[in-house]
Amino acid sequence: METFISKPHAVLISNPSLGHLIPVLELGKRLVTLHNFEVTIFVATSQTSAAESEMIQAAMSPKLCPLIEIPAPNISHLVGPDTALVTILAIMMHESKSPLHAVISTLKSRPTAMIFGLFGTESFEIADELEIPKYYFVASHAWFLALTDRTNQQYFEYVRMGTEIPLCDGILINTWEDLQPKALAALRDDKLLGGIVKAPIYTVGPIVRSCGPNGSNKELFDWLDKQPSDSVLYLSLGSGGTLSYEQNIELA
């Protein structure tokens, strides 16, 4: 008798802004094309960026991963002109929790895993209530997961999220083993950070946006293969990072 085994169904939750949306889209593509997952992506949109809207529309076709928008909540009564960006994003995700729960509950294919972005700890309880394993996706790197700056006004938001991250069933980090072996070892060592971060660590990087007419990076990798060993520096400034001309010269 032939046994039908359905695909695992992962629901990915993206925070507002392109810096969060692009890595989630790329992770979804990998789960579909490399691991035969069914993927549904939920985007809590800010509805303030034309580039964000264009990216969402482009992601909807072709429909490799169905993408569902969660309208931006009205948080004008919860924030002020001096509210830090991290706090604003955290509040937006908190206020999006109810509509997100409602839509996920109506999916025809029951999710087998939920993967949350940076501010997704606000919605962990949705996975708990639906009894779905939850995973936390760090689109940055292992150092980001291991450290925070206590002098930054947004430190306390990160501390709160940091205490909630270990409550998930696993953590996906946009890095690879050879790039950050010491930081990853510390995160896994029970005598160091592993004693706090109980969840298993999975390296899923590097996750970068595909380029080229066919979404291929072949030309780039062909060039890299021709370079002498240890002669190329990989530099990522994140979605908001920029350098002046003088800084580029200094870096070089």
Mean pLDDT score, rounded?
81
Succession of helices and strands: EHEHEHHEHEHHEHEHH
Major β-sheet annotation: 7 strands, parallel
CATH names the topology as Rossmann fold
Second CATH tier, the architecture: 3-Layer(aba) Sandwich
What's the helix count? 10
Poorly predicted parts? none
Count of spatially separate domains: 1
Number of strands: 7
Quick structural overview:
37% of the residues lie in helices and 13% in strands. By secondary structure, the protein is α/β, with parallel strands linked by helices. Strands 3-2-1-4-5-6-7 form a seven-stranded parallel beta sheet, sandwiched between helices.
Secondary structure: elements and pairs:
Blueprint: E1 9-14, H1 18-35, E2 38-44, H2 50-59, E3 67-70, H3 85-95, H4 97-105, E4 113-116, H5 124-130, E5 134-138, H6 142-146, H7 155-164, E6 170-173, H8 181-188, E7 201-203, H9 218-225, H10 245-251
Helix pairs in contact: 1-2
Features:
alpha/beta, Rossmann fold, 252 residues, 10 helices, seven-stranded parallel sheet
Describe the structure.
Helix 1 runs parallel beside helix 2. The chain contains ten helices and seven strands. The chain is globular, with a radius of gyration of 19 Å. Helix 5 links the parallel strand 4 (113-116) and strand 5. The chain has a seven-stranded parallel sheet, sandwiched between helices. It is α/β, with parallel strands linked by helices and 252 residues long.
